[in-house]
Write a structure and sequence with these properties.
heterodimer, A: 121 residues, mainly alpha, 0% strand, extended, B: 242 residues, 2 domains, 83% helix
Chain lengths: 121, 242
């Protein structure tokens, strides 16, 4: 019963997200808007309903399984992948390294500054 | 049973969604077992192994992707509500977010912009086509969000999903090396960086290797960076003139 409530809340938020996204021609995916709607709802309510928590955490626990059907879709792009294989791999490796480096250094810098501002008192 | 009988059974099974839904679940179970035998190595990530097994299966049985997807779509559909559910860990960590608001905001904006610009820039510099570059742009965010974005900006959603998975694996291999080299030891920074650069794969890696706090921060980074990317990517792509 409570799982049905949880699933209804999740699908309801996604539905609202799709409707709002389409109505205002937003470039943001419906489920992402649904996530914002749910977050606002939870902040207003001040707690997570039990059914929503068990349904949501169950889905997130098996999130990796849900990627598989789309990933198998790579089979349709073997031509493009074969043609641009080197470009794809070099881009992914180089861009990941740069992102890891820049993000961790930025966080380190600002976390320290933030910390320094708070501790002297 | 004679050949004709088996053939009939195959014709029936391959046309019903049952077979490929079951195949996906079984492939994932086998992949989990293989990954455990390999000591949880990110190179043999269960998702990658499961996809390889299924591509092998489809090639052997000469099944096309739309036929496979007719069965697997029931799992795929759940990505929508799962994305919405990311609001729950975000809500759980609202206090931590409030406390670390400035570093998190700056880090997320800088990290997301770096991820997008470096992916598109490097791909274009190497001579990639427009569509390939656009498909690479959302590679660091969790695949349901990345697929939605790729579709919106003119990339290829299913290729985007595959590239996102590869990014996850690459991020988990590179991160420990980069953290050691630049002396990043704070678990919150390690977790947040992993979640931003390598989405769900990074989060799983952070939980397993750097502890619960790192994992929580990583999950937070995955949700926030997905959100920020969805808002930021279309205008950035526009600015880059694509």
């Amino acid at each position: 019963m409570s799982l049905i409530v949880g699933m209804s809340i999740l699908l309801g938020c996604q539905f609202l997200g799709e409707v709002i996204g389409r109505a205002f021609a937003l470039p943001i995916p419906g489920p992402v808007l649904g996530m914002v709607i749910l977050l606002l709802g939870l902040l207003v309510r001040g707690s997570v309903p039990a059914g929503l928590r068990s349904m949501g955490e169950g889905l997130l626990k098996y999130l990796t399984l849900l990627f598989v059907p789309a990933g198998v879709g790579l089979i349709e792009h073997f031509d493009l992948i074969g043609r641009e294989f080197a470009i794809l791999i070099v881009t992914l490796v180089a861009s990941s390294a740069i992102t890891l480096l820049v993000t961790s250094q930025t966080l380190k810098l600002f976390a320290r500054r933030h910390h320094d501002n708070e501790t002297p008192r | 049973m004679n050949d004709l009988g088996l053939g009939d059974v195959w014709v029936y099974l391959s046309a019903s969604p049952l077979l490929h839904l079951l195949a996906t679940l079984v492939a994932f179970l086998i992949a989990l077992r293989i990954n455990r035998l390999a000591g949880g190595s990110p190179v043999l990530h269960p998702v990658i192994v499961a996809i390889a097994l299924l591509i092998g299966f489809l090639t052997l049985t000469k099944t096309d992707y739309p036929t496979y997807f007719a069965g697997a779509q029931f799992l795929h559909f759940l990505l929508g509500p799962a994305t919405v559910a990311l609001a729950i860990p975000l809500y759980d960590h609202r206090e931590r977010v409030r406390r670390m608001l400035v570093p998190i905001m700056v880090g997320t904006l800088t990290g997301v912009t770096t991820a997008i610009v470096s992916a598109v820039g490097i791909a274009l510099a190497l001579g990639a086509g427009r569509q390939t570059a656009l498909t690479l742009a959302p590679k660091s965010v969790t695949s349901p969000i990345a697929m939605g974005i790729a579709e919106k900006i003119g990339g290829i959603p299913s290729l985007a999903a595959g590239l996102v998975l590869l990014t996850g694996v690459i991020g988990c291999i590179l991160a420990p090396w980069i953290f050691r080299w630049t002396r990043i030891t704070d678990p919150t920074i390690r977790g947040y960086t992993l979640g931003l650069s390598a989405h769900g794969f990074g989060t799983a890696h952070a939980f397993a290797n750097y502890g619960a706090v790192a994992g929580a921060f990583s999950g937070l980074a995955m949700g926030l960076s997905g959100l920020v990317t969805a808002f930021l990517l279309p205008p950035v792509v526009h600015l880059l003139g694509l």
